[in-house]
Amino acid sequence: MSTFPGGTSLSFLDVYDDAAPDGVVGGSPHMHLASTECYVVVGGEGELHAVNLDGCREIPLGRGSVVWFTPGTIHRAVNHGGLQVVVLMDNAGLPEAGDAVMTFPPDVVADPDRYRAAATLPHRATEAERAADARRRRDLAVEGFTHIRDAIRGGDQTPLREFYAAAAALVRGRAGTWAAIVRDGPLRQAETGLAVTTDLAVGVAGHLERAAVFRAPEPAPARGFGMCGRLRPHDVANAVPYAKPAGLGPAADEEHRS
Fold this sequence. Notes:
The strands form three sheets. Strands 1, 3, 4, 5, 6, 9 and 10 form a seven-stranded antiparallel beta sheet that branches. Helix 3 packs across helix 4 (158-171). The chain has helices at residues 106-109, 112-119, 127-153, 158-171, 178-200, 250-256; strands at residues 9-15, 30-32, 37-52, 55-62, 66-69, 74-89, 100-102, 214-215, 224-225, 229-234, 240-241. By secondary structure, the protein is an alpha+beta fold. Residues 250-258 have low confidence and may be disordered. The protein contains six helices and eleven strands.
């Protein structure tokens, strides 16, 4: 099966290194409605600012840190210097299908047209223009985020609950296709794993003869402007079998067994 382990997606993230209006350096606060996200920190230092109904957390991040958060957790990547992250997302394809909602102010999140206009980065001729658009989007998300965060700190869950409701209404029209993404990705892989373990329990191991090695295409050198920073996603959905090196026929294989 060529699906990336767990039906997940993988991206390289360089967290934004400019400050928002509140003076915090980092990305756009947002949440996912159906997917769990994991940060594996590979360089630099920073923090993960997270908000849910349990409260607010500011989790230190450094090389080797691994932290993950479930749907409904509003999160903000904060960069204290050179923060680089490998991002793993379950339900590969859902984030691209609109699983994420940014914490714009309530009047924006409540209006699908205004939300779409605020969230979409228009085509621009220069990278500087694209960076300015990403910065404006981030700053608008921070505006809504600070309102929710401060309310939670003060013991008021109402703004967060209202954001949850507005976000669910916002994605309702496109969520009808999401079950197929989960079914064809992580669920199918889990069912394959279950079938394999069932076979092994009775001594059947035919799947071993279908063993293969896969390699994802190299990511594009250009980094896109993601919500949290400059993003290079790996196209793990289109992995190809890793070919046997040229010249390694059956005889050569015998030589390499030692």
